[in-house]
């Protein structure tokens, strides 16, 4: 289907007291993709997710989930989405299996159709199925939240900072599971402060800043827009004084013989930078370049607040 998994149209949210968390936000989440929703703290990401989850009332605009308008068909819309919250929220006196069974019951899923044991196995929690949830480690609790969000097999899974405070091995297990879900056709919406994760996982990324969308493009195209590039240059002797030149955006001393120079590729090229160095009488013995990554783009957009061209 051409219809997006999620459609956000002119969404606004103003809290009591006048704080405007979302300001005319519009974007589509294509079906079957891993979609990154990024932004600094306080940008409006969690407010947007809570609106989709039915936990926060929007002030204006429209949201459609799997073809169901959130206002006109709230039950169908909410049944089409599973949300893993940023906060670890659970009842400490239920076991993981009881937690999943109760959640499935709330969605009206018959006992014969429940997949609690399958989810526990996928989240590597089978051996903790009958332990009190309060005895689980932080990483286990977070994986339990992922399982809880999937009890009704929604076509869309929203992960709000799912790897915060999770160790490397648990992070790998979580992403393996997310990739399996994605391969099965589940649409994934991910918020994370680990930009390298977003760069590796996401097909498309939207960046929110001050409640507005400042970028929304396929990941590769977004990274390609970065204008700053770096060149690392090593010389044949110690550097007496760090050189300056109008074509250098920034310059840093790596060690006594090595400089890292940032330049804007829309204004100059690496040849111009190297030429400026040799003109200063410096003799270059080694050169390497560093291509821009998602972090470069992200910092550029949130520092300027300007929309990607």
From TrEMBL:
<dbReference type="InterPro" id="IPR050763">
    <property type="entry name" value="ABC_transporter_ATP-binding"/>
</dbReference>
<dbReference type="InterPro" id="IPR027417">
    <property type="entry name" value="P-loop_NTPase"/>
</dbReference>
<keyword id="KW-0067">ATP-binding</keyword>
<feature type="domain" description="ABC transporter">
    <location>
        <begin position="6"/>
        <end position="235"/>
    </location>
</feature>
<dbReference type="Pfam" id="PF00005">
    <property type="entry name" value="ABC_tran"/>
</dbReference>
<keyword id="KW-0547">Nucleotide-binding</keyword>
<keyword id="KW-0813">Transport</keyword>
<protein>
    <submittedName>
        <fullName>ABC transporter ATP-binding protein</fullName>
    </submittedName>
</protein>
<dbReference type="InterPro" id="IPR017871">
    <property type="entry name" value="ABC_transporter-like_CS"/>
</dbReference>
<dbReference type="InterPro" id="IPR003593">
    <property type="entry name" value="AAA+_ATPase"/>
</dbReference>
<dbReference type="InterPro" id="IPR003439">
    <property type="entry name" value="ABC_transporter-like_ATP-bd"/>
</dbReference>
<dbReference type="GO" id="GO:0005524">
    <property type="term" value="F:ATP binding"/>
</dbReference>
């Amino acid at each position: 289907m051409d219809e997006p998994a999620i459609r956000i149209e002119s969404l606004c949210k103003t809290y009591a007291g006048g704080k405007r968390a979302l300001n005319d936000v519009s974007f589509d989440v294509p079906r079957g993709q891993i979609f990154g929703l990024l932004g600094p703290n306080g940008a409006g990401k969690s407010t947007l997710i809570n609106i989709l989850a039915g936990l926060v009332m929007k002030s204006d605009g429209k949201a459609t989930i799997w073809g169901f308008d959130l206002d006109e068909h709230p039950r169908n819309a909410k049944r089409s989405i599973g949300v893993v919250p940023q906060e670890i929220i659970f009842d400490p006196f239920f076991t993981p299996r009881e937690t999943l069974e109760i959640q499935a019951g709330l969605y009206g899923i018959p006992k014969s159709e429940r997949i609690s044991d399958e989810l526990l196995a996928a989240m590597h929690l089978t051996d903790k199925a009958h332990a009190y949830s309060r005895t689980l480690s932080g990483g286990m609790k977070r994986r339990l939240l992922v399982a809880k969000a999937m009890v009704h097999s929604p076509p869309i899974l929203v992960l709000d900072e799912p790897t915060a405070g999770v160790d490397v091995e648990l992070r790998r297990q979580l992403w393996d599971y997310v990739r399996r879900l994605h391969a099965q056709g589940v649409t994934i919406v991910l918020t994370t402060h680990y930009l390298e994760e977003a760069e590796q996982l996401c097909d498309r990324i939207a960046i929110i800043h001050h409640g507005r969308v400042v970028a929304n493009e396929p990941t590769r195209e977004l990274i390609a827009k970065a204008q700053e590039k770096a060149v690392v240059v090593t010389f044949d002797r110690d550097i007496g004084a760090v050189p300056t030149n109008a074509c250098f955006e920034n310059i840093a001393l790596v060690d006594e013989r090595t400089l890292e120079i940032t330049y804007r590729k829309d204004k100059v090229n690496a040849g111009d930078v190297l030429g400026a160095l040799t003109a200063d009488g410096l003799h270059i013995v080694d050169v390497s370049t560093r291509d821009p990554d998602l972090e470069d783009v992200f910092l550029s957009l949130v520092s300027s607040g300007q929309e990607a061209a």
